[in-house]
Specification:
- It is a single chain.
- By secondary structure, this protein is of the alpha/beta class.
- It has 2 domains: 161 residues, 3-Layer(aba) Sandwich (Rossmann fold); 79 residues, no CATH class.
- A hairpin with a 2-residue loop joins β4 and β5.
- α3 packs parallel to α6.
- The chain is globular and about 50 Å long.
- Bound molecules: adenosine-5'-diphosphate (ADP) and magnesium ion (MG).
- Adenosine-5'-diphosphate binds next to β2 and α1.
């Protein structure tokens, strides 16, 4: 069953056609990768799906519901959450508190809103603590729960972001370049983590440039070039398509 359907999704910025009449179907419980050269429209696509950007045209259906143009907090409440290319955390807060905010965040609207509401929401909420600890254990950060988030390594920050998404109880996660800046050991850990998340039935949709990672973990790969889908299918299919090799894989 498809958990996400995108139809004729379109967005331009001034004279740039960032995403052009894009159709996609994402199967529930799968790992799907969205790849393509820089500027292909990948992040714009994620932004439109998750309510951070209103499309010029087209529709987004999540679990059969038309969520086109919904604000991000409402999309998140439906169980569709995303991470960003640039990790945002509250550096002064502990790792655990960063996650607690997320586990309570289903009804909230973005990080700044979270900050204002933080003090009243987080006050000894036992369930939030339990959910948060479980998410941190899942991503392997349990030993760092008391550390201020700003002391985490870059790789750990990425894991914190994924834990934050997990703690919301999301059924689908969009991860924008989760492996960027990670060393090869961290990328392997990330791959195992994503497979583990998939095994729980959570759908993963990721953008990444690490071809080894993408080919290794994805059930389906979708290739974008200049805002349009030029190929999609199983990794081994996609990697041999001449258009893909030409547009992206190069050598
Ligand atoms: N907020 C914006 N304003 C103007 N142009 C943008 C904006 N966001 C993206 N673009 C342009 O849209 C195109 C697609 O960008 P993006 O979706 O970020 O690509 P990708 O994530 O595949 O690298 C690029 O040409 C980019 O410069
Ligand atoms: Mg991008």
């Amino acid at each position: 069953m498809d958990i996400l359907k995108v139809r004729s999704l379109t967005k331009s910025f001034d004279s740039i056609m960032a995403v052009s009449s894009l159709d996609m179907d994402i199967e529930g419980g799968s790992i799907t990768a969205l790849i393509g050269p820089n500027g292909a429209g990948k992040t714009t696509t994620f932004n439109m799906i998750t309510g951070f950007l209103k499309p010029d045209a087209g529709r987004v259906f999540f679990k059969g519901q038309d969520i086109t143009g919904w604000p991000a907090y409402k999309v998140a409440r439906m169980g569709l959450v995303r991470t960003f290319q640039k990790v945002e955390v509250f550096g002064g807060l502990s790792v655990l508190d960063n996650i607690k905010v997320a586990s309570l965040g289903r009804a909230m609207q973005g990080l700044f809103r979270w900050m204002f509401k933080y003090s009243s929401y987080v006050r000894e909420d036992k369930k939030a603590v339990e959910t948060s600890l479980r998410a941190l254990e899942d991503v392997g950060l349990k030993d760092s729960i008391d550390k201020p988030a700003r002391l985490l390594t870059f790789g750990q920050l990425r894991l914190l972001e994924i834990a934050r998404a997990l703690a919301t109880g999301a059924s689908m996660m969009l991860l924008d370049e989760p492996a960027a800046g990670l060393n090869s050991v961290e990328v392997e850990d990330l791959a195992s983590l994503m497979k583990e998340i998939r095994s729980r039935g959570v759908t993963i949709f990721l953008i990444d440039h690490d071809m080894k990672l993408v080919m290794d973990i994805s059930d389906t790969v979708i290739v974008l070039d200049q805002g349009a889908r030029i190929a999609s299918g199983r990794p081994e299919q996609v990697r041999t398509e001449p258009r893909v090799i030409e547009a992206y894989l190069g050598t």
